[in-house]
Structures are given as structure tokens and as C-alpha cells.
Design brief:
- Keywords: Cell membrane, Membrane, Transmembrane, Transmembrane helix.
- Its main location: membrane.
- This is Probable membrane transporter protein.
- It is a multi-pass membrane protein.
- It is found in: Cell membrane; Membrane.
- By secondary structure, this protein is mostly helical.
- The chain has one domain.
- Helices cover about 80% and strands about 0% of the residues.
- The chain has twelve helices and no strands.
- Helix 5 packs parallel to helix 11 and helix 9 packs antiparallel against helix 10.
- The longest helix is centred in the first third of the chain and has 43 residues.
- The radius of gyration is 20 Å and the shape is globular.
Length: about 300
């Protein structure tokens, strides 16, 4: 009798702990996003008058919304490609690199928050892996965002970012066609996260292609790797987005708003389709598309 009581008590405690942990996946993103709204409203409320908002809903806004939907579907299903896809499109539309990277990372505060909640709901997250990626990834992203905002001339590095995007696309394609390898121990995970966060901020994308593709290439389960890297990306995007806002400010809010709205709409769909879309053909198609857009940017530049 006593053993049954103890087992029931342990089960009840475990259930309470699970409920408590589940709540944090909603509370933390919600709290941070409310704080972000407050800071933006306090510092930039003059830019968001009713007339300016109404006049801002142009055809370009809906183009940015469609880009946000497509980029988030790519990222949610493949675990990579939001930054690379959206940055490639924005650069090809003539958006400057600093504004493009700011827009991508501020929008990712919302899209990755929605994506993390969606992946948690569908049970796609390895919490240990996500926690190991967060702190070093945040450090790398802050350094990269500061350099791009206050040190590096964004227009001068535009062709180099396009070349970087082509390299990322090739990485995606190679990872798609390479045969699955047996699982290997993940070494130097912190350095991988720092590098991924840094390149993501400077180049406007790369967290997924660098981190997700490396971990899957070492034999990790795609479902839990994608879910965990997406969950960690919320912290990385939040850190870099705040850094961009502090040093760069808000310019071109239509780009940010379009990416946010499109990404939030598509986030649950991406988490749902993670195991329903053929992974390899989709990765190859996305890689080829990024190469095409980046070459288009290079041709315009020269």
C-alpha cells in the first residue's frame, strides 16, 4: 500500500514538473517579446503614427510578408535557411545589408519564438542540446551584430555577403546529397555555436546551415536536431536583434513587419511538416534558389 502511495506521489510530482517546464516554454518568449514591444514603443513611437502605418501597407510590404512566409516554411521544415533565404531575397530587392540583417534578426525574435513553441508542442526538442547551444551562440551573435552595426560598412561587404550566401547554399546541397553517417560524439559544440551565431549576424543568416547541418552530418537525429537548433535560435536572434536595435535603430519597419507577420503565420506549419516533406529534394531546391538570388545580387553590384 505504501509503495503504491509513493509511486502515485512520484508520478504526480513528475507531472507537475513537466507542466511547470512546459509553461516556461511559453512564459519566457512571451515575457521577452512584451519587453521588446515596450522598448520599441518607448524609443520609436513617433515613427508609428496611424497615418504612417496606413501609408506603409504598400505592395512592397506584402512582398516582404510573402518572403517571411516562405523563409519560415524553409527554416521550420529543414531546420535552416530562414536568414539565408530572406537575406538573399532582400538583397536582390535592393535592401542594404545592415537594414536587411536588422530586419531579419528582429523578425526572427518573433518567428523563432513561435517556432520554438511549435516544436515544443510537437515534441521535437532535445532540451540538453538546446541549452548547450544558447550561451555560446548568443556571444557570437552579439559580437557579429555589433561589428556590422558600428564597425563594418554594410554596403562595402554586400558582394561578400552574396558570396557567403552561395557558400551556405553549397553547404546545404552537399549535406542533402551526402549519405547519412553513423552518429559521432559532438565535439567543440560551444565553438560551433559561437561561429554560427557570429556568421548569422554578420551575413544575415547561417545559424541553421552551419549548426544544424554540422550536427546532422555527425549522425544526429534530424527531427530533434532541427527542433533544438530552432529553439536555441530564439535566444541567438533575440540577442543579435537587441544589439542591432541599440546600435542601428529601426529603419524600414515595413521590411521588419512583413517578415514578422509572414514568419509567425508559417511557423506552426513548418513544425507540422517537418517529417512530411521529402528532406533531400527540398534542401537541394532551396540551395539552388539561394545561389540564383545571390548571383543576381552580384550581377547587379558589378
Amino acid at each position: 500500500m505504501l509503495s503504491k502511495i509513493l509511486m502515485a506521489s512520484a508520478k504526480n510530482s513528475s507531472s507537475k514538473a513537466l507542466v511547470s517546464n512546459t509553461h516556461w516554454w511559453y512564459i519566457i518568449p512571451g515575457f521577452l517579446l512584451i519587453g521588446l514591444f515596450s522598448v520599441i514603443y518607448y524609443n520609436y513611437s513617433s515613427q508609428f503614427s496611424f497615418s504612417k502605418i496606413v501609408n506603409g501597407f504598400t505592395s512592397e510590404f506584402f512582398v516582404f510578408l510573402i518572403i517571411g512566409v516562405f523563409a519560415q516554411l524553409v527554416d521550420g521544415t529543414l531546420g535552416m535557411g530562414y536568414g539565408a533565404t530572406s537575406t538573399s531575397f532582400l538583397l536582390s530587392f535592393g535592401v542594404p545589408p545592415a537594414i536587411s540583417s536588422t530586419a531579419v534578426h528582429v523578425s526572427e525574435m518573433f518567428t523563432t519564438g513561435a517556432s520554438a513553441i511549435s516544436h515544443h508542442k510537437f515534441g521535437n526538442i532535445n532540451r540538453k542540446l538546446a541549452k548547450m547551444l544558447i550561451i555560446p551562440g548568443v556571444i557570437g551573435s552579439i559580437i557579429g551584430a555589433y561589428l556590422l552595426s558600428d564597425v563594418i560598412d554594410g554596403n562595402a561587404i554586400k558582394p561578400y555577403i552574396a558570396i557567403y550566401m552561395i557558400i551556405l547554399a553549397i553547404v546545404i546541397i552537399v549535406k542533402a546529397v551526402r549519405k547519412k553517417r553513423p552518429k559521432k560524439p559532438t565535439k567543440q559544440l560551444g565553438l560551433l555555436a559561437i561561429f554560427g551565431g557570429f556568421m548569422d549576424s554578420v551575413g544575415g543568416g547561417g545559424w541553421g546551415p552551419i549548426v544544424t547541418s554540422t550536427l546532422i552530418g555527425r549522425g544526429r537525429d534530424p527531427r530533434y536536431t532541427i527542433g533544438s537548433v530552432n529553439a536555441a535560435e530564439f535566444a541567438i536572434s533575440f540577442a543579435s536583434g537587441i544589439t542591432f536595435l541599440l546600435f542601428q535603430g529601426i529603419h524600414g519597419w515595413q521590411v521588419i513587419a512583413g517578415l514578422i507577420l509572414g514568419g509567425v503565420i508559417a511557423a506552426p506549419l513548418g513544425a507540422y511538416f517537418i517529417n512530411k516533406i521529402p528532406r533531400k529534394p527540398a534542401m537541394v531546391a532551396v540551395g539552388l534558389m539561394i545561389i540564383f538570388l545571390s548571383l543576381r545580387t552580384l550581377v547587379k553590384w558589378f
